[in-house]
Each structure stands twice: as structure tokens, then as C-alpha cells.
């Protein structure tokens, strides 16, 4: 792995202030595992409180609007999450694409807004079970990624420095069934090829590619040892310090081994 493994917790719509003690415990545990970069993306309402208390972990948002401000009731902009203390934002998660009808074009606009606000980005991609069964997973994911990234040499170069990709097959999210290590390795290799095509040899090799979808302590070691897997985006198992930090520990061991 070119950089430290990156283990990111996506808390989704989980967490009231009662969860701040869990965030604190994750932060303390992360201080003992400096070989791994640990971050969480809590709901918007907890970004600032977690940011205020965290000494080690990164704090990010799960989404943002593509405009800086305006008449968008209920929406939150990239500028606002950065102001609250977020250092990164997850964009293009399949739950946003499916439940909120987010197109690749909208996600591209969000990527541009997030970059302009100084945020790092975790850009998600992943195929449905139907697409995989039809043998089109790789072409689908590559097209999805290309269409969600900024256009033009300069914009791409700027994006690459603050970009992480998360491959999350839709059918593996929250189901308990992760993809096989072979399928993960194949997809990550294909994504790496695309990144090198887009960003050039050097920069394309630097962008971390995370796997997400039912990562848990029991399968983390195997998944994180696969080639080109630079970390994990973890949903359910990131909600308690024990399971989340077991995954971080597996990442450290995989990196050493
Ligand atoms: P899961 O979610 O770990 O609960 O499958 C992963 C994600 O959606 O990022």
C-alpha cells in the first residue's frame, strides 16, 4: 500500500449525542494505532461535537449539496460542513444515488463543490446484483467513476490529490455478505488502471481505493490483505469501538504482512 491504510466509519443515520462517548473511545483507540488512518463520518448534527473532541481521528460528512448556499430547504453545503469541522465528505454513496435519485452529473457537481471548499473526498461507486450477474460490473463501475469526476486535465489533477475511491457493491452493503476477495481484487485492479489512465502513472498510483460492503472484524483481515485494497469504508461495524477498532487492527496487520 502506498500510504497508511485508511479505515473510515460511515455512521449513516445513526447517532445522537449519546454516541459521542463511542466517538471519544474510537479516538482514544486510534491514538494507539497510528499506523492506520482512522476517520468517521457521523450524521451532520454530530460533526462539530466530534470535531471538537477528536484529537486523532478525521471527521467527515456523508454528503453535501453542490451549491454553497441558497433556497434549498433541508440541504447542507460543502462550505457548511467544512465550517463545522469536516475534513472530508463521502459522495456518491449508493444510498444517496438510490434513495435521493442522485445522478453522476449531480455527484460530479458535488465533487467540484467539495474541492472548492477544501475538503477531501471519498467517492463511492459500485454495481447492483443485476449488473454483476450480467457480467457488466467492471464496465459499469468504470463508467460511473469517470462520469462522477471533474472534467479536464487541471481539474482532474487537483481532484486526484484529495481523492479516495470506495468500491461498494450495492448488494454487499448492510447484507452481511461481502464480495469475494477475488472479485474485490479484480475490481480494485480495474479501478487502479482507470486512475492511472486519468491521473497519470504517479498520481494514479497514490489514490487510495477502499472496499466497503459488510466489512466486519471476521472478514477484515482477508479483505484488507487483497492487492490494491487501501482500506475500508465501514457501515454497521463502525458503530461500536470494539468492532471498528478490530477492523483497524486487521488493517495494520495486513499492512505489515
Ligand atoms: P456496511 O455499510 O458496512 O453496513 O455494509 C457500508 C457502507 O454503506 O458504507
Question: What does this protein structure show overall?
Answer:
The chain has 257 residues and is α/β, with parallel strands linked by helices. The chain has a single domain (6-256), classed as Aldolase class I (TIM Barrel), CATH 3.20.20.70. Helix content is 47%, strand content 15%. The protein contains twelve helices and eight strands. It has helices at 20-30, 44-53, 78-84, 94-99, 104-116, 129-133, 137-148, 153-160, 181-199, 201-206, 217-224, 241-256; strands spanning 6-10, 37-41, 58-61, 88-91, 120-125, 163-167, 208-212, 231-234. It has an eight-stranded parallel β-barrel, surrounded by eight helices. β1 (6-10), α1 (20-30) and β2 form a beta-alpha-beta unit. It is globular. 45% of the residues are buried. The site of 2-phosphoglycolic acid has 13 residues, from β8. Residues 10, 168, 173-174, 212-215, 233-237 line the site of 2-phosphoglycolic acid.
